[in-house]
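Exercise 3.2. Students should predict the tertiary structure of the chain below and write it as C-alpha cells, then compare their answer with the key that follows.

Predict this chain's 3D structure.
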Amino acid sequence: MKKLSVLFILVLSIWVGGCGQQLAKDTPTQRNTNAVSLERTYQKVTHNNCAHQVTSSGIETVGAPVKWVQVAPNDPRSVVKATFVNSRNGSAAAMISDNSRFQVDYSFGALNMHVDSGINVVNYKFFSAADKVQEEGTVTLNVSYSEKTLDGNLDVDDCPPPPTPTH
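Answer key:
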C-alpha cells in the first residue's frame, strides 16, 4: 500500500508540475540569469491515532521548497535522453519528464536537483539515438529561498483505511 501511495504522489507531482518555469539558456556571449523563488511553508499539525487521541502536535513543513523547471531542447523530437547537473554542488536531476522538465529543490530530495541560494549554473546535455550528444550548454539560476508559517492547525488522521475485502 505504501509503494502504491508513493507511486501515486510521483505521478501526481509530474501531472501537477505541468510545463514548469521555462528557463532561458545561456549563450556563448551572455549568461541569462533565471530568477527562481523557492518557499518552505510551516504550519502547526496535530496527528491523531485510530482512537482519535493526539499522538503528536507541533510545527511541520506542509509546503516544500520545490519547483518544476524546463529547459527546452532545440529539436525535441529527436531527443531520447537528457542530463542536468548543478555545477555548484554536483547534484543531478534523477527524475526527468519529457527529457526537459525536472524539479529543483532547496532540500535534499532523492529525485530532485538540489540548489543553493544564489547563483547555480546547470550543465545540460540532450542526447539523440546511440547516446550521441545532440545539444549541450548551461542555464543559470539565481535562487532565492524564503520561509513562512501559516495560521491555524492542520489535523491529520493517521489511522489506516480498513482493509478491502477480497473474494
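Discussion points: The helical segments are 2-17. Residues 1-16 have pLDDT under 50 and may be disordered.
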